[in-house]
Amino acid sequence: MSNNLTNQQAPASEATGRQRRHPLLRNLSAKIAAIPMVLVTLVGFVGCSVWSIVYSFTSSKSLPRETFVGLKQYDRLFDSSRWQASVENVAIYGVCSLVFSLGVGFLLAVAMDQKIRFENTFRTIFLYPFALSFIVTGLVWQWLLNGDFGIAQVIRDIGFTNFEFNILSDREYSIYAIVIAGLWQGTGFVMALMLAGLRGIDQDIWKAARVDGIPAWRTYLFIVIPMMKPVFITTLVIIASGIVKVFDLVVALTDGGPGVSSELPAKYVYDWMFGRGNLGQALAASTVMLSTVLIILIPWAYLEYSQKKDATHG
Amino acid sequence: MDNTLSNTALTEPHGPRPKRLISTRNIVLYGFLIVAALYWLLPLYVMIITSLKGLPEIRMGNVFSPPVEITFAPWAKAWDSACTGLYCEGLKVGFWNSVKILIPSTIISITIASVNGYALSFWRFKGSEIFFTILLFGAFIPYQVMLYPLVIILRELHLFSSLGGVVLIHTIFGMPILTLLFRNYFASVPEELFKAARVDGAGFWRIFLQIMLPMSLPIFVVAIILQVTGIWNDFLFGIIYAGTHNFPMTVQLNNIVNSTQGVKEYNVNMAATLLTGLLPLIVYFISGKLFVRGIAAGAVKG
Fold first, then answer.
1. Among A45, A246, B196, B247, which residue is least crowded by beta carbons within 10 Å?
2. In this complex, how many residue pairs, one in chain A and one in chain B, have their CB atoms less than 8 Å apart?
3. Cβ–Cβ gap A114/B18 under 8 Å
């Protein structure tokens, strides 16, 4: 007993000794260990973003220059037909990806949640493309959608000899090729998130619904989906922030073509920054991308934060 | 008995239990799943059979028919002598570059992030939560905003267009998700364990090395899976920061397939594509559920 007491006193006196030190020196090892994180957040994320925003107001060409020209770069950006095409395309890609990956992903998750046989096999099949890079995804679909030898040829072989299906070289539809490839790659992930959400729902809900004689589809629509709101929102944010970043997929699949028909904002930034040596223009475009993400992100972060605060109070 | 039943029910699917094997419901259910599975498997199947065909057969036949004559020549060519537009040394150059990028990036990023996560759960200091919040925001910031300033920073450090540069970039951009992963894991470690070690006089590093590390092996595996697939699949950072001599496999693959010179060799292209996808696929098939856990890390927990 007395031994125990002396043991406890030792760290206590050490702690008071520590408090007398300068506040910056307290917890020193932890602070040293956190230096990389502090550098990355301050210099990397905050510093770099601010730098880019500031230089988007300059007339920098291939090297950064401090000649400020106000909103000129933005005027030029919004006038550029290629940027307009990029924005339109990312909207098409975004809406299609969101609707289909959430829709199909949820349906797959519901199907997987019916006590099916071979659940692991199906899960493995739906999710394996997510392990592959966008470059691999893009190149596979480039081959499948090849107008001469791809799926189109298979349909011609069946008997529709005049069948033409060449969306990769069609100005109007080339963006949908990117949608198809993107959905193949990412829907399995949405399915996995949705399935985790479905498994998190209380079993008693199902029992209660069955006792009341409510059909399964109505239970899903009116009880389960509203209960899964947090999962849907998180998935939505993840998909949305992915949509803004899409770059590799276009480079591999269509390289923005034909013409500018499948250009996307991320590629616009890259091309102007490293290809055409027009830094100001590229930074203006990237700032617009950043603002879009913040518009999605801030309400979500606010929502999450206020929910957590409520949870701790309640 | 009753207890075990209710326990298993918690981890099993929640849908209504099927009654007979052949029913309208089952036909619709399995029909949907099988059609979906075929759609998802089709590209892999086409990739494999195309890579085993000769060029004349590809031009004559259709993409779904299995090869009449199996040849491994496209694989050999893709690995050893396919042209990227500049030189004809095949994908092996890119493969070894990717390995050289992958190993240090994985080790460094995970080491730093695990210490970060540990510090953030047990050794909070004034402002540590603010940095963590900014770090998480960083995961969502479009990379395009940070690309050029990082070029300048790397140039100042004499790391631009070098292996070291691209390793540093992977460490930076891997930090948010990895730190979150480790922080959430260490947060589930009982506080008493930490306090007991403190009472015994162990400091920051001793507690980390002797107590936390041995018990956090599973989360390290998840982190490794996450980083290995993520870094291997990267294209953007490789093409910008690695420099021409260190182009990773994805960049070389794209250069081989989308090079405009010469005849398009679809079989070689598909063999090259499969070779590039092989490592992440192997990781995926071996790791199984851990992979799902890795990619969903932080996503569901929030």
1. B196
2. 294
3. yes
